[in-house]
Amino acid sequence: MRLAYAQFAALECFIPRNDTKMTLDATDKKLLVLLQTDCKKTTKELSLKLNLSVTAVYERIKKLEREGIIKNYVALVDKSKIEKGFVVFCHLKLIQHTKEFLTKFESEVIQLNEVLECHHVSGDYDYILKVLVKDMEAYREFLVTKLTTLQHIGSTQSTFMISEVKSSTVVF
């Protein structure tokens, strides 16, 4: 059984989340690696690699989705081919660390399309953002017109990616 791309894309809205922890066996882990490497493989192709029936593979995938282990199916895009190859890691300090300031900043930063990731961290800075734009000029525009207009930012420090040595979406 082949799940079409549109079905994968639609699953994001329909995969229920479950907070209980599921114990993964070796086959589940291998299946997850295969799906993380290429989620467009058919259940038949997966069944051949796992030495399971198509139905068994399908049922395992459904269980992984129901348990919230598989959260989403996505297409990975070559950033350079869409003129978004300039990656910046922006370290931020907030002026205060109250719950109100943290919550307000987080609710505002998730609205910025240029921000791919936002991590609340310990150490000298409060947050690290992974920002993706076309070039230095676009980053300056983002910094001046969007990021630094957010409330409660005390300071920023930007680090620019020279080259990507490793980038993986595979957890196991």
Question: Quick gist of this model?
Answer:
With 172 residues, the protein is α+β, with helices and mostly antiparallel strands. The chain folds into two domains: 5-66, Arc Repressor Mutant, subunit A (Orthogonal Bundle), CATH 1.10.10; 79-160, Alpha-Beta Plaits (2-Layer Sandwich).
Main sheet overview: 4 strands, antiparallel
- The CATH topology of the largest domain comes to Alpha-Beta Plaits
Q: In oligomeric terms, what are we looking at?
A: single chain
Proportion in β-strands: 15-25%
- Biggest sheet strand order reads 2-3-1-4
How far apart the termini lie comes to: 25 Å
Give a topology summary.
Elements lengths: L4 H10 L11 H12 L5 H8 L3 H13 L19 E9 L4 H11 L5 E6 L6 E7 L2 H10 L7 E8 L12
Antiparallel strand pairs: 1-3, 1-4, 2-3
Describe the 3D structure:
There is one protein chain. By secondary structure, this protein is an alpha+beta fold. The protein is 37% helix and 17% strand. It has two domains: 5-66, Arc Repressor Mutant, subunit A (Orthogonal Bundle), CATH 1.10.10; 79-160, Alpha-Beta Plaits (2-Layer Sandwich), CATH 3.30.70.920. It has a four-stranded antiparallel sheet with strand order 2-3-1-4. α3 packs across α4.
